[in-house]
Amino acid sequence: MAEAVAQGAFGKVISVRGSGARVGLLPSSRLVPSAVRATVGRFVSIRTASSTIIAIITEVSSENLAETDEHIAVASVDLLGEILPGPLRPKFQRGVTNYPTIGDSVDLISSDDLRIVYEPTGSDQIDVGTLQQDPSVIAYVDIEEMLSKHFAVLGSTGVGKSTGVSLLLNEILKSRPALRIFLLDVHNEYGRSFGDKALVLNPRNLKLPFWLFNFEEIVDVLFAGRPGVPEELDILAEVIPVAKGLYVQYTSTDRLGLKRVDPKSIGYTADTPVPYRLVDLISLIDERMGKLENRSSRIIYHKLISRIETVRNDPRYAFMFDNANVGGDTMADVISHLFRLPANGKPMTIMQLAGFPAEVVDSVVSVLCRMAFDFGLWSDGVSPLLFVCEEAHRYAAADRAIGFGPTRKAVSRIAKEGRKYGVYLGLVTQRPAELDATILSQCNTLFAMRLANDRDQSLLRSAVSDAAANLLSFVPSLGTREVLAFGEGVALPTRLRFKEVPAHQLPRSEAAISTVPSAAAGNDMHFVSAVLERWRGATSHRDVPNDPGIAERPLARTLDAPMLQPSLGLDPDRFSLLKKPLR
């Protein structure tokens, strides 16, 4: 292409305005047909006296051209940046300082110019794929800019969004092996995408003591996601600080000489993350109930005690309540385990949320986001963390009436202030229109894949500040693995194609299950009974293996060990395994 363009001018500038210009396209038999094809999305170079301006074609039209006009068409272009001569080699910079003038020559960009634009400027660049316009040019992303100013991956179901996330995170781990990554895996599909670099957590091996939950979060757990009863909330707000003070008395060396003190003098609030015991909490409520003579008032206390007992005894909440006080104040151990400090060869944590009770997922996410931010805040950002939130619209919805307020607030704090404390945010969503616009606006690097919904496209248009916002007209027609990259992390707004991801790094999604039933399915009563056994096992107190790689062990698997990672290893022999007799 470069040789063909060099033989004759492709067009010339006929008008200039602000960040754009209009180019008259000239007929030329000296250009090969493939080079003559000027269409939207193609880059052009405008030669000025002191630099080469890089622009992108956003519109081409031959309407209303006079017969005497020397142009065969007129193209609108957006000015993106310029290549300036340097002491060693030419260098690209965003923005335009030397505007073109009428009559300046315009050419289709050469591969050499594209390489100058996209060449890596330092060691902090990762290779994510190739340019759609010229597959010989590698598309690099600047890690420092992408992470420190947050990023988002947007795209409808089935366009390769999860695969793109796996590619980005694996490349980040290669380039920055010491960076800690925390991934909220909503559909349990990333468990094997990162090999031995990741610790996989699920309800069976997670220990998140209930006393780490702040007041709003523990209320959300106790009331199963519904608004709390005001009278019961008043009681809880009064007794939780007292229960925390009692625990301190139990663990202090001179506890025999201490007496119970007034809650106001303890110094703890209902949100202070220090241990307390449910036994103390219930006994304090019971003690207050015993002092009441009014039967209707006692019912409120009785309901609250029943509510606490019900949640404590529910096996689905075992990760919060089982042995929650064993070992005393284990907050340091919990944070060390969750956020990989030290990493011990596994700098990444994958939190699989599919096995958690639906009523408690929002509270768990809120605790994790809040602790990630607070640890960064109080450690002055010494150990950076990338917090990746899959299906982000679930936890930070645009509609304030949807979702859990503290979760939205926790994600919002990371988005607005996290970069100051080394806590970076990566958002992944298929419905950007349902995501809080303020949070999305904090993401300065966007990877937009195919989006068919009009509301999603319009919100994306408002979020992109680059001069090439016209590129967004391509969003509905992007192919699988194709992406429009905008923002600080890329040299230019770019249409690129993510590179192939190795098979062992591909997320395993249930969406990939064939609609054609397997011949080995054996849909008989044994099969149904085996499925029910796994189903019930998820809410029983039996010991269940937690290892996400359990399917890879040579030992025969039996069904009294239900796996809670439905997407994490759908083996071809899963139906024959299910038909084994129950013990």
Can you offer a commentary on this structure?
There is one protein chain. Mean pLDDT is 80; it is low at 1-7 and 542-583. This protein has 18 helices and 18 strands. With 583 residues, it is of the alpha/beta class. Helix content is 31%, strand content 18%. The strands form 2 sheets. Strands 9-8-18-17-16-10-15-14-11-13-12 form an 11-stranded mixed β-sheet. A 6-stranded antiparallel β-barrel has the order 1-2-5-4-3-7. The radius of gyration is 29 Å and the shape is elongated. The longest helix has 22 residues, at 230-251. The protein has helices at 2-6, 33-36, 111-118, 143-148, 161-175, 215-222, 230-251, 263-266, 278-290, 295-313, 318-321, 331-338, 358-378, 405-417, 437-441, 454-463, 525-537, 574-578; strands at 11-17, 20-25, 43-47, 52-61, 73-84, 91-94, 105-108, 125-131, 138-142, 151-154, 180-185, 198-201, 348-352, 385-389, 423-429, 445-448, 482-487, 494-498.
